[in-house]
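Whether sequence alone determines local backbone shape is best considered at the level of individual chains. When preparing material for the folding task, we compiled for one chain both its residues and its backbone structure tokens. The sequence in question and its structure tokens are set out directly beneath this paragraph.
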Amino acid sequence: MRLPGIGPKSASRLAYYLLRAPEAVSLELAQALQELKASTRLCSVCFNITETDPCPICSDPSRDQSVVCVVEEPLDVAAIERAKAYRGVYHVLHGVLSPINGVGPDDLKINELVARIRRAQQTSTPIREVILATNPTVEGEMTAAFLQRKLSGLSVTLTRLARGLPVGGDLEYADEITLSRALEGRQPF
């Protein structure tokens, strides 16, 4: 039950499955978990989870190193990569600001982002754009606003992911904030 998304019933089903399965199944699972912990680390550049350092995205010469997409978690990198629409690089914060949960700026990879931008500004390929791709939650918006203030003195363009209605969505089911952002972000047809 300690795993995210696993409630009491799912935990019981998994435990009973492993008890009934041949011992080899449990041993393979245990070995896979050990290998997962032993073979993965954080990329020293973007802080995504990787087996190599730097990660394949950061070390890919075809990626645009001058555009950095800032996301909350490694799963967000995977989601954006699935869309096959982005060719820049990433920076993973590993969470969002949440005073209620005791998560402050020093608990995230914010200082590392600032240092990365400053280092890049001294090279032949400076970072020219930072895309704030935090989730549209209270914490995500607060984190984006904090990043905007923190990065305002640097020579980078800050952009935010567009907000609006999902494809296939119905207007009658959209909340007021989504509708207002969709109207604000409208584009020529």
Q: What stands out?
A: The mean pLDDT is 92. Residues 49-160 form a domain with the Dna Topoisomerase Vi A Subunit; Chain: A, domain 2 fold (CATH 3.40.1360.10). The first strand starts at residue 41 and ends at 42.
